[in-house]
Amino acid sequence: MQTSPRIGIIGTGAIGGFYGLMLARAGFDVHFLLRSEYDAVAEHGLFVHSPVHGELHLHPVQAYRDVAEMPACDWLLVGAKSTSNPTLAPIVSAAAAEGAKVVLLQNGLNNEASMRKLLPDHVHLMGGLCYVSLFRTEPGHITHGANGLIDFGYHSGPATDEEGVQAIIGELAEMLKTAGIPTRILPNVDAARWQKLIWNGPFNGASVVLDAGTDAMLTDPGSRQLITDFMAEITTAAAACGHPIPDGFADNLLAATAKMPDYYPSMYQDWKHKRPMELDSLYAEPIALAKAAGAEMPKTEVLLNMLRFIQARRLADA
After folding, report:
1. What are the helix (H) ranges across the chain?
2. What residues have CB less than 8 Å from 180, skipping those under 6 apart?
3. Angle at the Cα of 279 (from 144 to 281), degrees rounded to 5?
4. Strand 46-50 to strand 54-58: parallel, antiparallel, or no bridges (unpaired)?
5. pTM for the whole thing?
6. Distance separating alpha carbons of residues 151 and 106, to the nearest angstrom
């Protein structure tokens, strides 16, 4: 009889692979859904190369190329990009046990609201924000640079009372703590997503347009000013949408980024490998929300238009 929760990883890229491996090595029953990297992971396992955790290797891996082959899971951590959410929802629903808890580990705004409409009523939905430097170097191999913190909070589902919500949050916090993953519990997922967007929006898009990592963007006065201007615009939009940002928040992000190893964000990795970029959730959605609240984001609109042009040409070449 199963006594420990069964955890499913939907989207075993850098995010899903890293956190899934950490949970599995802590003794949890973790199942990984993969697509293009299935053969490599099934044969050789998952590798994490990290100055923080050392060289980690999980083998064998409970790996699947088809959700129909997976057992029903009590927890589902979704590491796939938000670009795939419409087609992802049936996969999540198929992998979910009755009363399953789904955590979206994604960038952008309103991901939970759009996903909620596509999931069964019995599923609990949570938002998770990952503060971590990760990228894949080859199939099954993930390089971890720094951090690993997950902020998370309850979004919606059958837990309608505070006691039920706190029980679910507590269970997730305890699992992550056991796996050595630092966490913070969010009272408001939407506010936290706006806060993360202040880093994600500028650095992701600018890294593609400028073909540069964080060190170069912060060292050059012009690109640093560009990042600062984007941060200020997003801060204003967040406040208009009812999520005021604490004073000095953007400055603290810049200072923390300057101390990180040189980093090429996830959107740069998508562009480099000719994958669709998360343009809607990172840019189009906040622009629309800000406009509805009476705020404009002209600099972000220019960035979005450039990224759409770059993406169209890049995917055509692919």
Report:
1. 14-25, 38-44, 85-95, 111-116, 162-178, 189-210, 214-219, 221-240, 249-259, 266-272, 279, 285-292, 298-317
2. 22, 26, 53
3. 85
4. antiparallel
5. 0.87
6. 11
User: Which residues have CB under 8 Å from 41's CB, separation 6+?
Assistant: 12, 32, 34, 61, 63, 139, 140
Task: Show the CA angle centred on residue 188, arms to residues 163 and 182, nearest 5°.
Answer: 80
What ranges do the domains of the chain cover? 6-187, 190-317
CATH number of 190-317: 1.10.1040.10
Active site residues: 196
Q: Which two tokens mark 284?
A: 């189009």
Pick the most confident of 83-87, 147-151, 186-190, 294-298: 294-298
Of 35 and 207, which is predicted with more confidence?
A: 207
How far separated are the first and last CA of the chain, in Å rounded? 48
**Nearest one of 305, 291, 278 to 196, comparing CA atoms:** 278
Concatenating the DSSP letter of every residue in 123-167 gives: -EEEEEEEEEEEEEEETTEEEEEEEEEEEEEEEESS--SHHHHHH
Reported CATH class of domain 6-187: alpha beta
What is d(CA 243, CA 112) in angstroms, rounded to the nearest whole number?
A: 17
